[in-house]
């Protein structure tokens, strides 16, 4: 990670400047210890939370926008069904998810990430259920290891990264086939059409891969898919 105050040109120069083997090994060795510490801390805290659903979406969504309200409603309904909520811990859709769980009287966790200009943790997470990471990939390990369902609302590059991480792990049988629910036909239709007309047409994926995710428009539909999955495969969670 780079220190605060270093501008982009300095970062580029630092990245391309030749370094000695000893310097590389010293730097990388210390990074390994920091990564291990983040993993251990995450495993210890997340291992106690019980069945959870992750809600992904944009940090830029405002509280007066429809997707914020939709995320809040989904989280509220899921907590009433007994599920905990995991979010990215920041503002926007993440805040809405933790807010819905808070007012639903349920458990929620925030997996926050340290970024130069964003993001501060939202106020609806208990301090003991907030984990802050330096490394995106360690944070994603926690999402993928401890989520037993994914609700994906409109978002940007980070949301797409998280969505396709989950899809890829399920496609390659590296994780259990938990439900992935995309919310908002209007928002996701272009991407899904592209997957059909390009990925599938070029045989880069199989037709069955399209069954990994489901498209819905309402909070009730999203919640029902998660509940139906658990009714079929597992005992209902009991907090």
From TrEMBL:
GO molecular function ontology, one term from the record: AMP nucleosidase activity
The protein depicted here goes by the name Cytokinin riboside 5'-monophosphate phosphoribohydrolase
Q: Name one GO biological process term.
A: cytokinin biosynthetic process
Q: Mind telling me which GO cellular component terms the entry cites? A: cytosol
Q: Which UniProt keywords apply?
A: Cytokinin biosynthesis, Hydrolase
The entry assigns this protein to a family as follows: Belongs to the LOG family.
Question: Pfam families, per this entry?
Answer: Lysine_decarbox
- UniProt lineage: Bacteria, Pseudomonadati, Bacteroidota, Bacteroidia, Bacteroidales
């Amino acid at each position: 990670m780079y220190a605060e105050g270093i501008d982009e040109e300095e970062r580029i120069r630092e990245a391309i400047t030749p370094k000695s083997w000893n310097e590389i090994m010293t730097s990388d060795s210390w990074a390994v210890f920091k990564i291990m510490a983040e993993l251990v801390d995450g495993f210890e805290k997340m291992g106690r939370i019980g069945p959870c659903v992750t809600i992904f979406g944009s940090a830029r969504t405002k509280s007066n926008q429809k997707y914020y309200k939709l995320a809040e409603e989904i989280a509220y309904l899921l907590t009433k069904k007994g599920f905990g909520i995991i979010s990215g811990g920041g503002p926007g859709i993440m805040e809405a998810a933790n807010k819905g769980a808070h007012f639903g009287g349920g458990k929620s966790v925030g997996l926050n990430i340290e970024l130069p200009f964003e993001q501060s943790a939202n106020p609806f997470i208990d301090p003991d259920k907030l984990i802050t990471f330096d490394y995106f990939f360690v944070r994603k390990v926690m999402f993928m290891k401890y989520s037993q369902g994914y609700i994906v609302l409109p978002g940007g590059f980070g949301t797409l990264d998280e969505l396709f991480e989950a899809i890829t792990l399920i496609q390659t049988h590296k994780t259990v086939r938990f439900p992935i629910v995309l919310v908002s036909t209007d928002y996701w239709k272009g991407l899904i059409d592209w997957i059909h007309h390009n990925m599938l047409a070029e045989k880069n994926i199989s037709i069955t891969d399209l069954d990994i995710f489901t498209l819905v428009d309402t909070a009730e539909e999203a919640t029902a898919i998660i509940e139906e999955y658990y009714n079929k495969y597992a005992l209902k969670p009991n907090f």
